[in-house]
Design brief:
The chain is α/β, with parallel strands linked by helices. 44% of the residues lie in helices and 13% in strands. It starts with a helix and ends with a helix. One iron/sulfur cluster (SF4) binds next to helix 14.
Length: 413
């Protein structure tokens, strides 16, 4: 190992060190370490260079437990899970306006009011696509404070920015309104969540002094979804990263049998999910990793992982790489997003289309596929392919691009 790698390892180790005894509140925004802390504690990371610390494991409130056979949230189980999370120092709760049709905000408000306001972080998001006029942004924000029964949000995001939502946000002056809320103390940290290309991310990140950004990041998307580039853009801009989809919607918690065997051979006791979490946690600019937890067992497994989390060693990275290669064989298109095939004379974003298609085949969500596919410029979709074959000559994966474009165009009809 050379000196540079060794230093990198030391930085990663320092960033992963658990806070063994949670400290008393400190710093301007308070180090919301819980006073009810008992037993194993999840690792914490400092917010930029402040005394504020954030748990590396964040409690995603998008898929809360529901009453058997009903869409209704099982509030008793949520209460038990929140109590357990608080006890383990996992005190970052991430909700949004439309999660559970608005019931997630209401439920979290109801459950968290039992705790001192300065003992937890509550994160919410502005869905700009629900707002038609500037006043709607203010109306939604007030409604969120009421639903959550709080006076302020610790972290707040402009939700799900892509090129279209970004232009909506600008038209509605969402940033201007939200930074006014920040000045008034109703928002402590202001960021955005993101779903688009690194090029769009660069534009948004440069536009304002954001406190943090939330991106989709996991070892499968590192190349496939260009998450590596997104992580690097945020890091270069000095903006901390909150991670969503660390398990790619649960896919990385149960890989193909061949890939699972590679991981089990290397460490029989480690779950596939813990490998995925450790991969993301090894990145020093990651502030918090969100995990949507629907069952107490998920929370227990996560507390176990995050209270003794270690960066991946070189040998473990190799193992994960082998598992990834085995798993990728399962993908509909083995595209690595290397972009050697570009530019296409028809301006077709070949790797982006394959990324969207693979995501669809992994998740099975046609609704999501339609949404992502229709965001592509009409003239640069799969049906614009003239089968010139230029791309095929450059593709190291030997993908028959024109044939795949034809197939995708048919499925997108
Ligand atoms: S074959 Fe289709 S996708 Fe490939 S370069 Fe030609 S037009 Fe573009
Ligand atoms: S060259 Fe092949 S693998 Fe690389 S981005 Fe293009 S289609 Fe994907």
């Amino acid at each position: 190992m050379n000196r540079r790698d060794m230093l990198k390892g030391l930085v990663a180790l320092a960033a992963l060190a658990p806070v063994s005894r949670l400290s008393a509140k400190a710093g301007a925004d308070g180090d919301k370490s819980s006073d009810v802390a008992k037993g194993p504690q999840v690792a914490r990371r400092p917010f930029r260079n402040t005394a504020q610390t954030v748990p590396l494991l964040g409690f995603g409130c998008m898929r809360l437990p529901t009453v058997a056979g009903e869409p209704k949230i099982d509030i008793a189980t949520v209460k038990t899970m929140v109590a357990r999370a608080m006890e383990a120092g996992c005190n970052y709760f991430d909700t949004a306006y439309m999660y559970h049709g608005g019931e997630s905000e209401r439920c979290m408000g109801e459950v968290l009011k039992a705790y001192p306001r300065d003992s937890f972080y509550l994160t919410d998001k502005m869905p700009v696509w629900f707002a038609k006029e500037e006043q709607d942004v203010e109306r939604i924000f007030k409604e969120q404070l009421e639903r959550c029964q709080v006076e302020y949000f610790d972290f707040y995001l402009v939700h799900s920015l892509n090129a279209a939502n970004w232009s909506n946000a600008k038209r509605l002056k969402a940033y201007e309104f939200l930074s006014k809320m920040k000045q008034e103390g109703k928002i402590r940290r202001l960021g955005f969540s993101f779903h688009d290309t690194p090029e769009v991310l660069k534009e948004i990140i440069k536009a304002h002094p954001w406190d943090f950004v939330q991106i989709q990041l996991n070892y499968l998307d590192w190349e496939l979804y260009r998450s590596k580039e997104q992580y690097e853009i945020a890091t270069e801009a000095g903006v901390p990263v909150v991670v969503m989809e660390p398990l790619r919607g649960g896919v990385l918690a149960s890989l193909s049998p061949e890939a699972m065997m590679i991981l089990k051979d290397a460490d029989p006791d480690a779950s596939a999910a813990s490998w995925a979490f450790r991969y993301v946690a090894s990145l020093p600019n990651v502030l918090c990793i969100l995990s949507g937890m629907s069952k107490p067992e998920h929370l227990e497994d996560n507390i176990r992982t995050f209270s003794q989390i270690k960066p991946l060693s070189e040998a473990e990275r190799e193992t994960l790489n082998l598992a990834l290669l085995a798993y990728r064989k399962k993908l509909a298109v083995p595209c690595t997003a290397c972009r050697y095939c570009l530019p296409c004379p028809q301006n077709i974003e070949i790797p982006r289309i394959f990324g969207i298609y693979n995501q669809y085949k992994l998740s099975g969500s046609k609704w999501q596929f339609n949404g992502a596919y229709r965001m592509l410029p009409e003239k640069a979709r799969a049906d614009a392919c003239i089968a010139c074959g230029n791309c095929v000559k450059h593709c190291p994966q030997k993908i028959n691009v024109p044939e795949m474009m034809k197939k995708i165009a048919q499925e997108a009809k």
